[in-house]
Design brief:
93 residues, mainly alpha, 6 helices
Length: 93
C-alpha cells in the first residue's frame, strides 16, 4: 500500500513539474509571439523555430499565425489549455 501511495505522489509531482500556465504562455505570446516564443515555452521547439523562420523570411507577415494562436489562448480555460497544448502537444491552432 505504501508503494502505491509513493507512486501516486511521484506521478503527481512529475505532472506538476511539466504543467504550464496559460497566463504565462499568453504573456510570452504578447511580447514575443511574432517570433514563436510561446511555442518554446510550451516545449514545442520545432514549432517555435518554424514560426521564427517564417516571421523572419516574410518580414513579419507570418506573424498572423501567432495572432490567431493568441486569440485561441484567450478563449481556453486552464484545463482545456493544459490538455490541448501540454498533454496532447498540439502544434498548430
Amino acid at each position: 500500500m505504501d508503494e502505491l501511495r509513493y507512486r501516486v505522489a511521484r506521478a503527481e509531482s512529475e505532472y506538476e513539474s511539466v504543467k504550464k500556465d496559460a497566463r504565462a504562455a499568453y504573456a510570452i505570446w504578447l511580447f514575443s509571439g511574432i517570433f514563436g516564443g510561446h511555442r518554446f515555452y510550451l516545449g514545442d521547439t520545432t514549432g517555435g523555430i518554424i514560426r521564427l523562420a517564417v516571421s523572419v523570411f516574410t518580414c513579419g507577415a507570418g506573424s498572423l499565425i501567432g495572432l490567431i494562436e493568441g486569440i485561441i489562448y484567450l478563449t481556453k480555460t486552464d484545463a482545456d489549455f493544459q490538455r490541448t497544448y501540454v498533454e496532447e502537444k498540439k502544434g498548430w491552432f
